[in-house]
Write a structure and sequence with these properties.
Elements lengths: L14 H21 L2 E2 L5 E3 H7 L5 H6 L1 E4 L5 E4 L4 H10 L9 E10 L11 E10 L4 H17 L6 E6 L6 H12 L8 H9 L10 H6 L12 H16 L4 E3 L11 E9 L6 E8 L3 H4 L7 E7 H11 L11 E5 L5 H13 L4 E3 L6 H10 L4 E5 L1 H5 L2 E6 L5 E5 H15 L3
Parallel strand pairs: 1-5, 7-8, 12-13, 12-14
Antiparallel strand pairs: 2-4, 3-4, 5-6, 6-11, 7-9, 9-10, 10-11, 14-15, 15-16
Helix pairs in contact: 1-5, 5-9
């Protein structure tokens, strides 16, 4: 029988890596609290129409990458390819417009897209998502960027720079769209197959193409910022002034249009890395008409998403810290089998006192147990034998120094905690 393995494009997050994920999520939660963002937990699948109407039925995500299925009742459902549409649906469905605005929300979890697997990119991938919904003020855009910069600063990423652009709004974008098409028309046969397909339906996406030939053709394309209406120009200017006010390093990038149809006005990415190795670690922008596209009333919003896999890769490349690797404080060792019932009771008591503990469950001898204690990373081995138990005591061995002391059983947890606190600096 052939062994079953994980499908192509997905992977297991093993203990040697999962602690890094926990660290990133912990820092994200701290930054969310700092900025007043509340966590929500969203369903993994949604009505397909949410993404088809919200993201745009001409986008690569909707056309090629969604995992869509029909359930037993005949409904078309889709594993979420991103979180923003779900966030806005959640905001509308639960009447958050009646609360203080903007509603500041964040979430984390798996997303699903059928893409070619490569380093840092999988068909099931995890994202952090932060959204501020309900206000048009460009200073909210600035806050979203400030939050992302603070998150990545705390995660130890360096040379943070914000790539910014404005993609206009439904009033001014059509004019720019036609001018862009007029510029691209003479070069249509030189574009890649994907860009030729986008020419009539979504020409702005051609600016985002990574093919060398398409990049060269679009170098002289019209600049969208030069075609903004008065409202969009004012919004963009205020946004840039806000970035300067917070001391953010930013650069205008007319090729930055984002890949989803719901973006309006602000579009941005944050890059990080040592010189010559710039990497985008998040992307986002404003989506003032997304709520209307999915059946709600006009509800402005702005946010960003960051792939956790990409963030961790960037942290590893830059040698950033993931904090203290989880380890246990004490490993309970039994000198003979008769001591095992008392060892289980003692282990339980240590854990109730907040100590991270373990013991051998494989029936190993004392020497093998001590070896297991060392390999586990435990600081102390708590040795229980008939002699110690007859005195109501436990021998506590410091595995780093080799020093061994005997404590009364009822005092052991307190003494071990005291030593750990002293070594941690109080």
């Amino acid at each position: 029988m052939v062994a079953i393995k994980a499908p192509r494009g997905v992977r297991d997050i093993l203990p040697d890596e999962s602690w890094k994920w926990a660290y990133v999520l912990e820092v994200a939660s701290e930054v969310a609290d700092l900025f007043g963002y509340r966590e929500v937990h969203l369903p993994i699948f949604e009505d397909t129409a949410l993404f088809a109407r919200g993201i745009g039925d001409t986008t690569d995500v909707v056309e090629k990458e969604m995992y869509t299925f029909t359930d037993r009742s005949g409904r078309s459902l889709t594993l979420r390819p991103e979180a923003t549409a779900s966030m806005v649906r959640c905001y509308l469905e639960h009447g958050m417009q009646r609360e203080k605005q903007p509603a500041k929300l964040w979430c984390s979890g798996p997303m699903f897209r059928y893409e070619r697997p490569q380093k840092g990119r999988y068909r099931q991938f995890w994202q952090l998502d932060f959204e501020a919904i309900g206000v048009q003020d460009p200073m909210v855009d600035v806050e979203i960027v400030a939050l992302s910069l603070e998150l990545f600063r705390r995660l130890g990423l360096s040379n943070l720079e914000v790539m910014v652009n404005s993609v206009g709004c439904p009033r001014c974008r059509p004019t720019y769209r036609e001018e862009l098409k007029a510029y691209l028309a003479p070069h249509l046969d030189e574009l890649c197959d994907s860009c030729r397909a986008r020419f009539d339906r979504n020409p702005l996406r051609i600016l985002d193409c990574k093919e060398e030939g398409c990049i060269e053709i679009t170098q002289g394309a019209p600049d969208v910022v030069e075609h903004l209406c008065e409202e969009c120009r004012s919004h963009f200017d205020q946004f840039l002034n806000g970035l300067e006010a917070i001391g953010a390093s930013y650069r205008l990038n007319k090729r930055l249009v984002r890949g989803l149809d719901y973006y309006t006005k602000t579009a941005f990415e944050v890059t990080s890395g040592k010189l010559g190795a710039q990497n985008a670690v998040c992307g986002g922008g404003r989506y003032d008409h997304l709520a209307e596209a999915i059946g709600g009333s006009f509800t402005p919003g702005v946010g960003f998403a960051a792939g956790i896999e990409r963030v961790i890769l960037s942290m590893e490349e830059e040698g950033a810290s993931f904090g203290e690797r989880p380890s246990i404080d004490a490993f309970v060792v039994t000198a003979e089998a008769s001591a095992r019932p008392k060892a289980v009771s003692f282990l339980h008591e240590l854990r109730r006192n907040g100590l991270r503990c373990d013991m051998d469950y494989a029936g190993k001898g004392m020497r093998s147990q001590l070896k297991a204690a060392s390999s586990s990373g435990a600081r102390f081995a708590c040795i229980l034998g008939s002699e110690e138990l007859s005195r109501g005591a436990v021998a506590v061995k410091d595995l780093s120094s080799g020093k061994q002391q005997e404590f009364p059983l009822e005092k052991a947890a307190e003494r071990i905690k005291a030593v750990l606190k002293e070594q941690a600096g109080g």
